[in-house]
Amino acid sequence: MRNSCFITFLLLMTAIMPVVAQERVPDQNPRYMESYLHYAPLADSLNAFHATTLQQTYKAYNYFEAKAERKAQRREWRQQRRLQNIRYSPSWQYTSPWGYDDYYYYRPYRRTASMFTSYLTATALAFGIYSLWR
Amino acid sequence: MFNVTQGAVISALCGCLFLAACAPRQVTRVSENEQIDVSGRWNNTDSRLVAEAMTTNILSENWLSDFLQQHKGAKPVVIVGLVSNKSHEHIDAETFVKDVERSFVTTQKVKLVQAGSKREELRGERADQQKNASVSTMKKWGLEIGADYILQGSINSIVDSHKKKNVTYYQVDLELTDIQSNEVVWIGNKKIAKYIRN
């Protein structure tokens, strides 16, 4: 604790010393030290932007660009819809590229090819029984 | 369906298209002062116009003669600060600010000190010399020249467009401020307006 206080004092003195060394000028604000102590630690970060261009651009409206963007957006949505349709179509059995099937994930309303086959089998059996019965 | 003549014409057209597609790209060197507007956006001509206006303006204004008079002929020292691009396009101010800096150095009317990352690099090199250079050639700390003025700026734009018509207005402002007193001693600006019809 004592050591840390001493180090803080030393740092403060090191920061103040150059200013103290400056001779006071007539009409100088007597509270100039407060300003110095505020800005001295910030100097590096503030001066890092010297000789650079800060890009604060905005997006201007352009009729043709907006039209092209709407078209691109529509195309993207259509592609997503197509992928979704393929993903959930009954004739497509999904196999995960990570080596395991995601069949075990909870997806109660998913229709798979095997279910579709079982519907067909059940219908064929029912039709056969009905034919025999008749 | 097609007779022989029609077939030949279609084949020739297809051949021409194929050859046109295979034609190599043509690149021609042009003069940097030639005005070539392709898209209507900010280009080298705009940057050159700004640089020309600023360099002629900054060295001929009263702030320079006033400083020389007040400091008995000592040249003012300028540092380049931040330029904010608040327009709708990506514009790097270095393309025209460098021309202004170059005019300071070539005319020898104003002293220029390094700023930003280049100044950091210089200080890094000086720090390295303290360990690696011979004592006689080692550069000392605390002898940099303090700047009298800082050059700052901003780029703004206004866009008015409707369907095929577009008016773009750019305003580039550079300001020179006294670091001691915060007094703005010079403001230079260049306004560029473009009418673009698609």
What is the strand and helix layout of this fold?
The complex is a heterodimer of chains A (134) and B (198).
Chain A: H1 2-21, H2 32-39, H3 43-47, E1 53-55, H4 63-88, H5 113-133
Chain B: H1 4-22, H2 44-58, H3 62-70, E1 77-86, H4 94-107, E2 111-113, H5 116-132, E3 149-162, E4 165-178, E5 184-197
Helix pairs in contact in B: 2-4
Descriptive account of the structure:
The complex is a heterodimer of chains A (134) and B (198). With 134 residues, chain A is mainly α. Chain A has a domain at 70-133. Chain A contains five helices and one strand, in the order H-H-H-E-H-H. The longest helix of chain A is centred in the middle third of the chain and has 26 residues, at 63-88. By secondary structure, chain B is α/β, with parallel strands linked by helices. Chain B has a single domain, classed as 3-Layer(aba) Sandwich (Rossmann fold). Helix content of chain B is 37%, strand content 28%. Chain B has a five-stranded mixed β-sheet with strand order 2-1-3-4-5, with helices on one face. Chain B starts with a helix and ends with a strand. The A-B interface holds A 47-64 and B 79-94, 97, 115-120, 155, 157, 159, 161-164, 166, 198. Strand 1 of chain A pairs parallel with strand 1 (77-86) of chain B.
